[in-house]
């Protein structure tokens, strides 16, 4: 398939590479050129303007946030100039307000919008083992399913409304960050009675909490590994903000997310914005006066 | 081994039965007689007074809380009258303040105290598949290890100080209740955008949160299954209180536990004290005005 | 002075009337015509388009929120068409982000912007007894001081930057809503031990909390007076949102405001959006299962 | 009147001195002797044992907390040995659980218990300008009213049940500490936009919050005056604990008090336990990374 791919960040470059390996024609665009050159060596075609990607059969976008996505896809005129019937597979984490805005803009442009946010960090993007939630027109989804199968280990259908996939991503990230806070608080408590953090993590991740969320972040908190962030604290703050904002129009109180917001703001104020999200758990320990 | 077993509640009766099946001599005491009779039919010897249990080689206690344990083991004179060298295996969930009190009382009575709180609900107690954290004198632990192997699938050593096993239990329960609140909030959010609760639970328990804590409670919240409580909301409130109280002398802020406390109090005030702990998650959904 | 007055809501109409009484020429515009007619009877001149107000010496705006203010003052072209040197006295409660936007737009249009948010409800607007915080170019403030003296009992200078007056308003409203929550929680607690709510309010408002914030809202909570809202719960939620949003770019954690947000969302979800803000305090009592 | 006075701490010594000045016979007991000697010079009689105070017509106790009061009044045998018909005026801040315990112990001893907690710091104790809430047997209150008139500017009758006066004190302190947190958060927010803390405090304490709670603590927070504590942060933590504990059996959620508890624990963990309670507000500012 002829695919336009916009956004070759830490996730996007691995995903685009997998599409190339699977034999697809991939036209890439990225703001900075380093990642573009790497992919060209692997067989991709470099585009000069993001609008050229909308000349393919499918456009995949994997940009940082609402603002960047709006600027590059909509304000640039790229979407408006796309050929009718094109499918746009939006795979980034976006706000529900912006997804609504996208739904309207795509309807105007005659482009089919599929929201397909991904779950997993860089390593899973590279190995094609992401989980992918997907929502949009069913026929369009059927058409891109082979691409989703290349990118992920499993696709999770969430219906026709792109918002449904979008909110699933937001809610899951909120749960992930909650798990980090809960683990940090539990470690602050057990450490204060002399239990080694690593013993605690071994125990919980072997029993009630034997799941990736805890297995990835528990040991990082225990070992104070907050450098070399895969998922920065600042990004976590952004994601908690997406949850709070999504809840507002629907009047959904989110007391845990509120605690997360305040604790993340505190951590950012203290200079930890670029640390790994595990720093949120470490801060729960520090807040108790423990090292 | 000759074992005194005190407390045949929903957990204790399954545990005592397993010790009998394994060929041990089990002397049982319980406040109400129904469970005693059931176990006598399985080969147990009924005791008239809890103090008689302290004439065995090992006493196992599995009572409801601090107050009941203090009343039956200490205030009754049972502990004081025990023969020197006896091992007491305390398997209930108790406060750190009371474990400290027990440590002193056992030292005075010349009894070896092992804290060995268990993880798992009734079904795991019956099948001998509990997880057991254990802390106390190492020689005593070595002696009771065969019993722990009968009762649980795995023993998790936490050192010499009974407090270490006690705080592990308290912190893990706090994490479990946090997981229920987080799941409820996430469902309130996704439901408000039209995602089916069961779809959401399927997704999270197959991916980032593929762990017992979420697999047990997620579907209960999604299906509003809050009757027939294995773990009541009132008991959850007690356990969150144990965490908050344990944190106080050590100056450990626990903002998630504070939210849990308030939300559990609200639920109890609204008449849900005897509901399953899953009702905490359901309440997160109701708080947003959704059914 | 020749004054354009835009926004004759519950606050604006009393303020405009006072300017007329003080002998000023007042040109009024309002979306709905009822209030316009009332003021015309008192000597005001009715305008057909808000842009005509910008032909006066001073324009006062007192509109509902950011969106309405942007739509009527900026998007309509009114500001852009104003005569150079005009002073705009912005007296509504607006977000810091929008005040920043206004500062830029006014600079482009050559209009002097003064932020002068007011403190007090309708009755104080009518009696000219408002408190007014003011920030902007000092010469412009000096020129409008006679108007501020008509509208308020006292003006509180906050420097040159309109943001300073804006954030003062936002922070004070956050404190007011915090006072309502704190009073509600305290009443829930004392009522549960048999103290009459009115006795409690009499006591606190005669001693430590003998201040308008508590004297206005305390008795309302005690008597469950939540109809006939001067300040609706929905508006309170908006104002707490302004505080949270203002804190975000500066990394200011606001844990009390977060609690307020969740409790207000809950109240709105339960249908109390149009109740008086006192309903927040009443809900604190209801959350404890008390009537 | 012949009065036994137990507890000559920072509040008690001023109160006892006022009773002496008013012409009463005051028999004093205190753990440390410095304050006793000062009062003896003013005409008091020193007692060797607290039990001797119970030989007077009225005993006033003003001790630090539950534990000290229990130890000195009950466990020492003092109360049990008192002469029948004695009135005990308990003026300290105590838990509701302990007040209940006192009610029973006094009934057994035939002593009439009046709870009369005081509001105000040392200076008001010295000048006899305290506010006093009072609850107990009405005839007994009538008899001690002249003493209350010496000690305070006003007495606030709260009925027959000592718990009512006790919970009033607890709830009011919770509100006071909430006011400090709210002020600190508001200052963190306004300071982050460049408003001087002193300008902010001047404004709020002249308008909506023109009340002692804010006038005492607002300027202290603004000027970072946290030394020379009249009311320490550690004592504030104890008082918030009294509110949370009082709410528990009655199922009263207290989300603001929960936030206070966590923030106070954090401050104590960071070494501010002996600072003035104003340090709670200062910490709200520090949490945002501001000095």
Automatic annotation (TrEMBL), chains A, B, C, D:
<dbReference type="InterPro" id="IPR015815">
    <property type="entry name" value="HIBADH-related"/>
</dbReference>
<keyword id="KW-0560">Oxidoreductase</keyword>
<dbReference type="InterPro" id="IPR008927">
    <property type="entry name" value="6-PGluconate_DH-like_C_sf"/>
</dbReference>
<dbReference type="InterPro" id="IPR051265">
    <property type="entry name" value="HIBADH-related_NP60_sf"/>
</dbReference>
<keyword id="KW-0520">NAD</keyword>
<dbReference type="InterPro" id="IPR006115">
    <property type="entry name" value="6PGDH_NADP-bd"/>
</dbReference>
<dbReference type="Pfam" id="PF14833">
    <property type="entry name" value="NAD_binding_11"/>
</dbReference>
<protein>
    <submittedName>
        <fullName>NAD(P)-dependent oxidoreductase</fullName>
    </submittedName>
</protein>
<dbReference type="InterPro" id="IPR036291">
    <property type="entry name" value="NAD(P)-bd_dom_sf"/>
</dbReference>
<dbReference type="InterPro" id="IPR013328">
    <property type="entry name" value="6PGD_dom2"/>
</dbReference>
<dbReference type="InterPro" id="IPR029154">
    <property type="entry name" value="HIBADH-like_NADP-bd"/>
</dbReference>
<feature type="domain" description="3-hydroxyisobutyrate dehydrogenase-like NAD-binding">
    <location>
        <begin position="167"/>
        <end position="280"/>
    </location>
</feature>
<dbReference type="Pfam" id="PF03446">
    <property type="entry name" value="NAD_binding_2"/>
</dbReference>
<dbReference type="InterPro" id="IPR002204">
    <property type="entry name" value="3-OH-isobutyrate_DH-rel_CS"/>
</dbReference>
<feature type="domain" description="6-phosphogluconate dehydrogenase NADP-binding">
    <location>
        <begin position="2"/>
        <end position="156"/>
    </location>
</feature>
């Amino acid at each position: 398939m002829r695919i336009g791919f916009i956004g070759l960040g830490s996730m996007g470059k691995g995903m685009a590479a997998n599409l190339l390996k699977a034999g697809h024609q991939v036209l890439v665009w990225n703001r900075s050129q380093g990642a573009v050159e790497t992919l060209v060596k692997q067989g991709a075609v470099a585009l000069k303007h993001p609008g050229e990607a909308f000349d393919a059969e499918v456009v995949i976008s994997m940009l940082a946030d609402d603002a960047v996505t709006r600027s590059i896809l909509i304000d640039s005129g790229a979407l408006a100039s796309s050929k009718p019937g094109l499918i746009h597979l939006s795979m980034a984490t976006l706000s529900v307000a912006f997804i609504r805005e996208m739904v309207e803009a795509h309807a105007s442009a005659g482009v089919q919008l599929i929201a397909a946010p991904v779950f997993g960090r860089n390593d899973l993007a590279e190995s094609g083992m992401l989980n992918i939630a997907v929502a949009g027109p069913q026929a369009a989804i059927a058409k891109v399913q082979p691409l989703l199968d290349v990118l992920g280990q499993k696709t999770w259908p969430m219906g026709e409304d792109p918002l449904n996939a979008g909110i699933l991503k937001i809610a899951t990230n909120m749960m992930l960050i909650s798990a980090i806070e809960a683990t940090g608080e539990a470690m602050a408590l057990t450490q204060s009675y002399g239990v080694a953090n690593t013993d605690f993590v071994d125990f919980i991740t072997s029993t009630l909490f034997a799941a990736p969320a805890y297995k990835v972040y528990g040991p990082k908190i225990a070992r104070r590994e907050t450098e070399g962030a895969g998922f920065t604290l600042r990004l976590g703050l952004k994601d908690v903000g997406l949850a709070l904002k999504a809840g507002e129009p629907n009047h959904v109180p989110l007391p845990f997310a509120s605690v997360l917001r305040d604790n993340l703001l505190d951590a950012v104020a203290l200079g930890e914005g670029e640390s790994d999200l595990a720093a949120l758990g470490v801060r729960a320990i520090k807040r108790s006066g423990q090292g």
